[in-house]
Specification:
The complex is a heterodimer of chains A (122) and B (107).
Chain A: E1 3-7, E2 11-12, E3 18-25, E4 34-41, E5 48-54, E6 59-61, E7 69-74, E8 79-84, E9 93-101, E10 109-112, E11 116-120
Parallel strand pairs in A: 2-11
Antiparallel strand pairs in A: 1-3, 3-8, 4-5, 4-9, 5-6, 7-8, 9-10, 9-11
Chain B: E1 4-7, E2 10-13, E3 18-25, E4 33-38, E5 45-49, E6 53-54, E7 62-67, E8 70-76, E9 85-90, E10 102-106
Parallel strand pairs in B: 2-10
Antiparallel strand pairs in B: 1-3, 3-8, 4-5, 4-9, 5-6, 7-8, 9-10
The chains are: A mainly beta (122), B mainly beta (107).
Chain lengths: 122, 107
């Protein structure tokens, strides 16, 4: 059974960089059949897609965050990571990592981490 | 960016009711439309992918339809465990935007 687990600081100061890691258990991230993504959800609000990384190394980001965001993968550790720089209070949210299926129509996210709340505050 | 508009934003229904949630895309997205269910404090769960394909393990009372710009999620015979918030998401082009969500509450 595939499991994804987010890890990282729960509190980040304004103007600093938010860094989260997603560790994948029960499956390899080194496969062209899947891609790996980050999604966030501010408290009491809806879901916002942050970006995806693919086996090829291609990444796609939400244009609203593109100047501040970076997603990378470490295949040796079976992890992928999110970095978001120059954070403000508006970046306070639960952050989810997820697996997407490339080879299925609709390319949905079929497995999700449980999410981790990151608060931006001094 | 493709905007996804869900309606209604919330609804009240009783156990056994048939519930319909709609999602409209601001441009044609073929069938690149997925539906998720989210319960408080939990991660979203995939219900329907490619507009009408039922994810493995999801009860058959959930169904999806539509293509192009207009899509529907139907729950035929609402169960107590179905009270949750439902989101659509387009994966036709990046950013892979989500709808604003529909909260299904107990009447």
């Amino acid at each position: 059974q595939l499991q994804l687990q987010e890890s990282g600081p729960g509190l980040v100061k304004p103007s600093e960089t938010l860094s989260l890691t997603c560790t994948v258990f029960g499956g390899s991230i080194s496969t062209s059949s899947y891609y790996w993504g980050w999604i966030r959800q501010p408290p009491g609000k809806g879901l916002e897609w942050i970006g995806n990384t693919y086996y090829s190394g291609t990444t796609y980001y939400n244009p609203s965050l593109e100047s501040r965001v970076s997603i990378s993968a470490d295949t040796s550790k079976n992890q992928f990571s999110l970095r978001l720089s120059f954070v403000t209070a508006a970046d306070t949210a639960a952050y989810f990592c997820a697996r997407g299926i490339v080879v299925v129509a609709g390319t949905p996210f079929d497995y999700w981490g449980q999410g981790t709340l990151v608060t931006v505050s001094s | 960016d493709i905007q996804m508009t869900q309606s209604p934003s919330s609804l009240s229904a009783s156990v056994g009711d048939r519930v319909t949630i709609t999602c409209r895309a601001s441009q044609i997205i073929s069938n690149f439309l997925n539906w998720y269910q989210q319960k408080p404090g939990k991660a979203p769960k995939l219900l329907i992918y490619a507009a009408s394909s039922l994810q493995s393990g999801v009860p058959s009372r959930f169904s999806g339809s539509g293509s192009g710009t207009d899509f529907t999620l139907t729950i035929s015979g609402l169960q107590p465990e179905d009270f949750a918030t439902y989101y659509c998401q387009q994966s036709y082009s990046t950013p892979h935007t989500f709808g604003g969500g529909t909260k299904v509450e107990i009447k």
